[in-house]
Amino acid sequence: MTSTVPALGTRTAEGSALQAVLLDMDGTLVDTEGFWWDVEVEVFASLGHTLDESWRHVVVGGPMTRSAGFLIEATGADIGLDELTVLLNDGFEERIGRALPLMPGAGRLLAELYEYEIPTALVSASHRRIIDRVLASLGAHHFHLSVAGDEVPRTKPHPDPYLAAAAGLGADPARCAVIEDTATGVAAAEAAGCRVVAVPSVAPIQPALRRTVVSSLEEVDLTFLHGLMTEMR
């Protein structure tokens, strides 16, 4: 389930309530939410169907089984879920092979977390084959482990991926800061009991208890994350 790097460091600001940082991938660290939609549009066009733009908000951020299943039902396309999943993953992998743009502030945040040896996990609803391709570009050394959507019994919006990441890092979920871009991911993190920073990518997300909303990762640094956890005390 995990991709590991050397043992956790000790420079995590002793006394801080922050034990780990758990990060979503698509739309949070890499600017790829639009890639998924473009691939879905292309695949269904090849099947003779046009996707309604309003469906984009339905499929964003969720597990592929949910997104693909919804699109099959909505279009009536004559294709099975397993076959469609392969086509979508193939198309997305080809797309990120051409370009993988980072979200603003992502590179700087990852470098800071690595410098201060903050236990960090990549937690995505994408499949392992996709995560490993992205990790090669992001730098696997930035993460102590990663959790893929096809490696847990239930993926987002269920809490399983974030509970697995916290357990893998030996952290209390309540002392983990999660950074997410969609309502689906936020729901998963909150169900796991984590403190959430939402950076909306496609659809708006409202602030709530234990949830802070920012417009960009450029607003998020280690001081900011420590401050969020201190507010909980």
TrEMBL record:
UniProt superkingdom: Bacteria
SUPFAM superfamilies associated with the record: HAD-like
Gene3D superfamilies: HAD superfamily/HAD-like, Putative phosphatase, domain 2
Matching PANTHER family: 2-DEOXYGLUCOSE-6-PHOSPHATE PHOSPHATASE 2, PSEUDOURIDINE-5'-PHOSPHATASE
Listed name of the protein: HAD family phosphatase
Organism in which the protein naturally occurs: Streptomyces levis
Taxonomic placement: Bacteria, Bacillati, Actinomycetota, Actinomycetes, Kitasatosporales
